Amino acid sequence: MVSAARGRSEKRDIVHTSLSARGRGGRARYGGAVTEPMAAAETVAELGEREVLARILRRLPDVELPLGPGDDSAILPAPDGQVVVTSDTMIEGPDFRLEWSSPQQLGHKAMVSNLSDIAAMGARPTGLVVALAVPGTTSAAFVEGLAEGMAGALRRHAPGCGIAGGDLATAPQVLIAVTAFGSLEGRAPVLRSGARPGDALAVSGALGQSAAGLKLLFAGLRKSRDAEAQRLMNAQLAPEPDLTAGLRAARAGASAMMDLSDGPLLDADRLATASRVRIDLEPGRFAHLSDRLASHLARLLGLKPLASAELALELQLTGGEEHTMLATFPEGVALSAGFTRIGTVHEGTPGVTVGGRLAAAKGWDPYRDASSK
Fold it and tell me: For residue 16, what are the contacts with CB-CB under 8 A and spacing of at least 6?
């Protein structure tokens, strides 16, 4: 996705500055150890595009690509002739607040939110391009932190995958737009449209953690030293989903799959609509997780047991940004390791029920809910 906020300066591609060194076999290598200190007083306007770009590239993972940064476009591998593509944009204000997130956390989250979409197709990530727009007064240290966060997320969640290029620009607020690419390596993609009656609905992680963290942030607990509060807030600010779950589910025979980013109710409704089935979420299957989350919320927010239990269930059903996998598995197929069953696929009018009762497809909507974050 390309940012429309370019400022007055001419658009310049991040790959215009030739900084890559050729590795063996003519393949481009980039990244490596950081050699220069970055003074906190420096701003991107003072450094200029070329130096900012150089400092970013030196902090990215050292990976091999057919052609990386240094030309007008990069070249990524496509072993089976098919390319999986996704994009996501994070904008200061609607999507994050600088008083809550460190630049490292922002860089990390920008990578994870895109890598999870690639994983949801049963694909392996092969590269990313990043468009970054910041005000000219932004400190160079902030941009350095973003690059470090991106590099750390790639090393942890997509070893061997790197950033192949992108764009640098100015804007009134911070904007990070990422496009990720992946390879199916000869496998068929796992689509949203493959669920069938009798399938089990399962998720590859806990529910409501990121939404609970957001609740705590709004409650003013950002600087809390409580370990559980920090864990929940980190689930929102720098999520750590198991992104290998997508490939495992695909290999195990998942019939449908998607990234859980907007909440189980809304995302399950999307899956049900695409598959033309009804999906019933069964709270009893994850009641033990609800009880644990309710206990934490009661203690941290000072809620009574009933109120905390109701809030925990609401967050688990509607809370987004988990970036785990929501998948269906046919009858007789064992759930992939790390998945917990949370519902069942049925025949009927496409939609979602909770415990057999019709439920509205409520979840995160960027146009409706942006003012609440």
Answer: 72
Do 69 and 154 form a contact (C-beta atoms < 8 A)?
no
- Please give the C-alpha separations between residue 283 and each of 81, 162, 357, in angstroms, as whole numbers: 42, 39, 12
Residues facing 129 on adjacent strands: 165, 179
Structure tokens, 346: 């049925």
Beta 278-281 vs 351-354: how paired, if at all? parallel
> Measuring CA to CA, how many Å separate 202 from each of 187, 194, 248, 315, 323?
22, 14, 13, 17, 14
| pTM for the structure as a whole | 0.85
Kindly provide the residue ranges of all beta strands, DSSP E only, lying in 12-62, ordered along the sequence. 12-13, 21-22, 28-30
C-alpha of 218 from chain center: 21
Gap between the Cα atoms of 40 and 145, Å rounded = 11
The per-residue pLDDT for range 161-203, each reduced to its tens digit, is: 999 999 999 999 999 999 999 999 999 999 999 999 999 999 9
Q: How many CB atoms lie within 10 A of CB 62?
A: 13
pLDDT tens-digit map of 49-93: 888 888 988 888 878 778 877 777 888 888 888 999 999 999 999
Q: Which domains does the chain have, with CATH numbers?
A: 12-183 (3.30.1330.10), 192-364 (3.90.650.10)
State the sign of the Cα–Cα–Cα–Cα dihedral 204, 206, 210, 211. positive
Q: Rounded to whole angstroms, how far apart are CA atoms 128 and 124?
A: 12
Backbone angles phi, psi at 325, to 5 degrees: -100, 135
Q: Which two tokens stand for residue 146?
A: 């973003």
Q: Is the pLDDT of residue 2 over 50?
A: no
Is residue 208 over pLDDT 90? yes
Q: Which of 35, 79, 78, 31 is nearest to 56 (CA)?
A: 31
Q: What DSSP state is assigned to residue 335?
A: P
